[in-house]
Each structure stands twice: as structure tokens, then as C-alpha cells.
Design a protein that fits this description.
The protein is an alpha/beta fold. 25% of the residues lie in helices and 31% in strands. The chain has 3 domains: 1-66, OB fold (Dihydrolipoamide Acetyltransferase, E2P) (Beta Barrel); 99-120 and 287-450, Vaccinia Virus protein VP39 (Rossmann fold), CATH 3.40.50; 128-271, OB fold (Dihydrolipoamide Acetyltransferase, E2P) (Beta Barrel). The chain has a 7-stranded mixed sheet, covered by helices on one side. Strand 17 (331-336), helix 6 (339-351) and strand 18 (357-361) form a beta-alpha-beta unit.
């Protein structure tokens, strides 16, 4: 086998990164934009000792699950890896992805994993948009879009059906206005150019937008000020425009410091019956209707299984879980290290007249070490890297009954649940996936684990 060779293959399944898996004389081949049960003609593009990558040359016999993507640039944009597969089949595949991770990576075969709960919206659902910005070499026209799969080649996107249409209009305005004003786009190879990302936080609740201009600078330039004011004046939906400073040569989208330069520094979002304030660097689920399902699921579980519990909300962000569950808890304690999120959480608690929540700022691991109280329920909602063993040890020490572990990464979730099961003796009750990221291989999960006395 060599790069450039062509074969006809049958696609067995999808991997946990959304690639089709086929075999040539037992040798594994991964294929982009494949669908389980496709029969394909493929061309090898990469060859290693243990696997090959390939692209589709022709679809010999399409799978019954294959559909026409509703986005005209789905194949070149790296954002929606599964849009060519029927939505119902996507849910089945995501369940299989979670099952495979638990069985093959964590060697946990008996975990009860439910079918994912579908997203109420499968189009226009994405309410946080993060577009890399660049510019053409000669004309210096501004480009904005997503990177092609497994590359840093920017696809200039004029229309994206998974986000609100107004976001397309705002991005197009920024393209033209930035060029007119003289704002340069970021060129990654040479680490030059001022505007490197545009982030739009969009409220499903009231349709307001918060725009964040991420600049390759440590101060706000006059052209950026003009651009921010122009955006604010052009769109009544825009409640504010912020600047985030990120002058480091890094893949991180945003730096640590943001400054609102026109309008309001936050938007409001509604979750269950609570109103939240979302800032430039606040974590909040990108799919509010699906988040409503997830938070409702957790709240219903706590309500049905506990009577006025003492609840700890760890890695709390803006204390969304703690605030939503405050009316089924005796008291809620939350811990979050991002100071802006802590401030917004306190404002949100006051806005919703919640007086039984204690909101703490600081590192979760350090907070655990100092904490003496015992909690009936602990909610863990860590970043993709999961929890440290120290944090899991402390959660084991502090919790007397149930840990609810919320994760967007099945691999680190399985790793951490395996540790709690095998090293700490906890019982895994269930894992309920939620489709927060339609048409992608990503899947959010809520795991319920119980302490064995």
C-alpha cells in the first residue's frame, strides 16, 4: 500500500472523531465524510505503520443513512463532520461512540448508557460563534470562517446554517468595515495582523448579541475603536462590543483580559426559569434549548431523589447548575476560578433573588482541600481535560451520596469514572448523553455515580 493507491472498501463504523473506519486486508483505514455501510472508492492520502488516511473518490453504493448535507460547503468546512448522515442515525452513532470509549479505552463493559436526548433545534442552534480572521495576500481583503479539517487553511464562510442568520450578517459587515477602516487580519505564519478572531455570544432568550474582537495587541487601536462603534451602530441586536487581548503565539482563541468599549459587557440568557448574565469570557453552553434539557434532567434527578440536599457545584462557571438547582436544595455552594464568572454568578443570584447560594472564587482542588462540610450531591462540570486524581479524591471525601459528572469529553469522563469505580468503590448508575453539538462527533454526557456504603 502506498499514498495515492485506490481501493474499494466497506465502511464498518465511525470512530470517536467522526471518521469512517474500513479495512484493507485487515489494515485500518480512516475516511473523512464516510457513513457506516457505505461502499466507497477511496484514495490513500497518508500511510503509517498502523493505519492509513483516505479520501472518497466515488460512492459506489451509499449507505441507507446517507443524506444530502444542507450546507453547501460541508465537505470543505471542518465544523460539521456528520451532516451527511441522517439526524436519527447521528444519535445512534453518538451512543456507540460513548459505548466504545467506555469499553475500549476504559475497559468498562457494563455501564448503562442511554440513547442521546435529541437537540430541539438541529439548525440555527449554535449561539456561540468563534471565527478565525485572516486576510488575502495581495488585496488584503478580510477573511472569516472555519479551518478545513485537520488544517489551518481558512474557509471564508458567508453562510452557516447552524448559527442564527444575523451572525452571518454581522460577520459580513465586519469583513467589509474592517477592510474599509484599515484593520488588518491576522496572518498566523508570521504572527502579524491585528484582528485574529471574532467571537459572537448570541442570546436565544432575547436575540441580543455580544461581539468580542480578539486582537493581536496589548492595547486598543483607533481603527479597532472605530470598528467596534460601527458594529454597535449598525445592528440594534448588538448590546455591546468588547476587545480581548491575545498577543501570544498560541492556538488559544482568547487571552485573559477583555474590555468592553461600547455598550453593555454582557447579554442575558434564560435557562429553566432563571436569567443569567453572559460575558465575553463566560462559559455557557452553545446550544441553549439543548442545555435546557440537560439542566432539567439534572434538576429532576435531584428533586426526585433528595429532600433539600446540601449541594456543591464545582467548576461552576457562572454557577448555572447551582442557581438552577437552588430551589430544590437546602443550600448550594459553588466554586469557580474565573473571577469574571464569579462576579456574574453573584449578580445573577441577586437578579433571581436567590439567597441560599454561597459563591466562591478560586481553584476547585484547593477549595476541596480546605472544605470540611459534607455534601449530599456534588456536581462536577470540569473542562475537557477532566478532573485531577486529587480533585476526585476530595470529591470522594466530601460527598456522602451522589456525584453528577457533566462532561463534553467521553474519554476523560470514562477515565475518571473508572478511577472512582475501581479505586474508590463508587457505583456508576448511568450515563445520559445530550446532543449539544448537532452534526458533529461531539457529545455532552451526564453521569450519575453513587457512593457504596
Amino acid at each position: 500500500m502506498n499514498c495515492g493507491d485506490k481501493y474499494e472498501v466497506y465502511v464498518e463504523k465511525l470512530t470517536n472523531t467522526g471518521l469512517g473506519l474500513a479495512r484493507i486486508d485487515g489494515f485500518v483505514v480512516f475516511i473523512e465524510n464516510a457513513c457506516p455501510q457505505d461502499r466507497l472508492k477511496i484514495r490513500i492520502t497518508k500511510l503509517t505503520k498502523s493505519y492509513a488516511n483516505a479520501v472518497i473518490e466515488d460512492i459506489v453504493e451509499p449507505s441507507s443513512f446517507r443524506v444530502r448535507p444542507f450546507c453547501p460547503i460541508q465537505k470543505v468546512c471542518g465544523a460539521c463532520q456528520l451532516q451527511h448522515i441522517s439526524y436519527e442515525k447521528q444519535l445512534d452513532l453518538k451512543k456507540e461512540i460513548v459505548e466504545d470509549v467506555f469499553k475500549n479505552i476504559a475497559s468498562m463493559k457494563d455501564v448503562r448508557i442511554f440513547r442521546p436526548i435529541a437537540s430541539p433545534l438541529t439548525r440555527n442552534y449554535r449561539h456561540k460563534i468563534q471565527y478565525p480572521i485572516s486576510q488575502t495576500k495581495d488585496s488584503k481583503r478580510i477573511l472569516a470562517g472555519y479551518y478545513k479539517s485537520s488544517s489551518h487553511e481558512l474557509v471564508n464562510i458567508k453562510y452557516c446554517p447552524i448559527q442564527p442568520q444575523i451572525c452571518d450578517d454581522i460577520i459580513e459587515f465586519i469583513r467589509k468595515e474592517a477592510f474599509s477602516i484599515g484593520v488588518s487580519g491576522y496572518v498566523e505564519k508570521v504572527h502579524k495582523g491585528e484582528l485574529r478572531h471574532v467571537v459572537i455570544r448570541s442570546s436565544y432568550y432575547n436575540n441580543k448579541k455580544l461581539i468580542v474582537l480578539v486582537v493581536n495587541n496589548e492595547k486598543i487601536s483607533t481603527p479597532i475603536k472605530k470598528l467596534a462603534q460601527s458594529i454597535f451602530d449598525a445592528f440594534e441586536e448588538v448590546s455591546g462590543v468588547c476587545v480581548n487581548f491575545n498577543s501570544k503565539r498560541t492556538n488559544a482563541i482568547m487571552g485573559k483580559v477583555s474590555q468592553c468599549i461600547v455598550g453593555c459587557e454582557y447579554i442575558e440568557e434564560k435557562l429553566l426559569d432563571k436569567i443569567f448574565k453572559i460575558g465575553a469570557q463566560t462559559f455557557f453552553q452553545v446550544n441553549p434549548p439543548s442545555a435546557e434539557n440537560l439542566f432539567g434532567y439534572v434538576k429532576e434527578y435531584v428533586k426526585n431523589n433528595f429532600k433539600s440536599p446540601l449541594l456543591l457545584d464545582a467548576y461552576a462557571g457562572i454557577s448555572a447548575f447551582g442557581i438552577c438547582l437552588s430551589d430544590v436544595s437546602e443550600q448550594v455552594v459553588s466554586i469557580e476560578e474565573n473571577i469574571k464568572s464569579v462576579e456574574l454568578a453573584k449578580e445573577t443570584a441577586r437578579l433571581n433573588n436567590i439567597d441560599n447560594i454561597e459563591i466562591n472564587g478560586g481553584d476547585a482542588g484547593e477549595f476541596f482541600l480546605k472544605e470540611k462540610r459534607k455534601f449530599d450531591v456534588i456536581i462536577l462540570d470540569p473542562p475537557r481535560k477532566g478532573c485531577s486524581k486529587q480533585s476526585l479524591d476530595e470529591a470522594d471525601r466530601l460527598c456522602v451520596d451522589t456525584i453528577i459528572y457533566v462532561s463534553c469529553n467521553p474519554a476523560t469522563l470514562a477515565r475518571d469514572l473508572k478511577y472512582m469505580s475501581e479505586e474508590k468503590g463508587w457505583a456508576i448508575d448511568s450515563v445520559q448523553p445530550f446532543d449539544m453539538f448537532c452534526h458533529t462527533y461531539h457529545i455532552e454526557n451526564v453521569a450519575i455515580i453513587k457512593k457504596c456504603n
